[in-house]
Automatic annotation (TrEMBL):
Taxonomic lineage: Bacteria, Pseudomonadati, Pseudomonadota, Betaproteobacteria, Burkholderiales
Provenance organism: Advenella faeciporci
Superkingdom assignment: Bacteria
Transmembrane segments: 36-53, 65-87, 107-131, 143-165, 171-192, 199-218, 278-301
Keyword field: Membrane, Transmembrane, Transmembrane helix
InterPro entries xref list: LysO
Name of this chain's protein: Membrane protein
């Protein structure tokens, strides 16, 4: 509970700071600042890719771990999206502002740019590691995230959050994600002829890779710890793909695939794709999954005792 509060506190503070700045600044200056949201989303993706590249360097049995991680990330992402799409009401739509120009070529271009920045970050990390150069010069992912949260707060002054998010669909979203993530993990474990308990553990991080990596390593060893960490990293990357391709037309299922990251690292992307209307939904879903993840993982790990 304390970890969740510490995670939510800076998010709320930077959003409030943005709201205050937006109230003070003239509308023209606020509009100029909010136009920086898209460039900073690309920088955030570059930083995520850079961090991902550094994580790869520390892995042993890389090929096997990446294969397992991709299978579980894909399984949990697909099951979560399909579960939300099947079970929740279908009358959702992204804002007109968000969906108006999201034709197929626009989506492909946006997704291509996103992956170009991700790959550039990974490539730079690998080059610096190969050259034995300092890898700590780039500002952290959190730095870009907090800048984006301030910009989102400024934008919310002119387009406030709708309180309509407080409805059954919003409350049910994290519950469906939990159930269908575990179902997806079970299905992947069965298909790969792995222990079902491992499948449940690898599907229960909901994208919170720093948590799952530490807990699973401590209980099951470095191999499964690395697989868990990479599964949740891949879930975050796959959720970005889902958001760009499907988020404008199916915002809630796309937000659900972001898991715990919906309240932090993927929040700026959710705002960019779905508009301000779904920001509160994303924060709620991410917060609930962040609260559940440590307890669920801890309980699942006791099944090995």
């Amino acid at each position: 509970m304390k970890d969740l509060l510490f995670s939510l506190l800076p998010i709320c503070l930077y959003l409030v700071l943005g709201l205050l700045i937006g109230k003070i600044l003239p509308a023209t200056q606020s509009a100029r600042l909010t136009r920086l949201i898209t460039p900073f989303v690309w920088l955030l993706l570059f930083a995520i890719g850079y961090k991902f590249g550094l994580q790869l360097e520390n892995l042993q049995n890389v090929t096997q771990i990446l294969g397992i991680a991709m299978a579980y990330a894909l399984g949990t992402t697909v099951f979560s999206f399909v579960g939300l799409w099947l079970l929740l009401p279908k009358n959702e739509k992204g804002t007109t502002e968000a969906t108006s120009d999201f034709g197929i070529w626009h989506v492909i271009r946006e997704c291509g740019i996103a992956f170009a920045f991700l790959l550039a970050g990974i490539g730079l990390a690998k080059l610096l590691l190969m050259a034995h150069m300092n890898t700590e010069w780039l500002p952290s992912v959190e730095t870009f995230l907090y800048i984006l949260l301030v910009l989102i707060g400024i934008d919310l002054v002119n387009a406030p959050i709708s309180l309509k998010f407080l409805q059954f669909r919003t409350i049910a979203t994290p519950v469906v994600v939990i159930l269908f993530s575990l179902l997806g993990g079970t299905a992947v474990a069965w298909l790969m002829d792995m222990d079902i308990r491992n499948g449940l553990v690898l599907s229960a991080g909901f994208g919170w890779f720093s948590l799952s990596g530490v807990l699973v390593t401590a209980n099951l060893g470095e191999f499964y710890g690395a697989a868990s960490l990479m599964t949740d990293l891949f879930r975050e990357l796959l959720s970005i793909v889902v958001l760009f391709f499907l988020g404008a037309r199916h915002p809630v299922p796309a937000i659900g695939t972001s898991g715990a990251t919906a309240m932090d690292t993927t929040l700026p992307i959710i705002k960019k794709i779905t508009g301000n209307h779904y920001i509160a939904t994303a924060i709620f879903c991410g917060a609930v999954l962040s609260l559940v993840a440590p307890f669920l993982l801890t309980w699942l790990l006791t099944l090995f005792n």
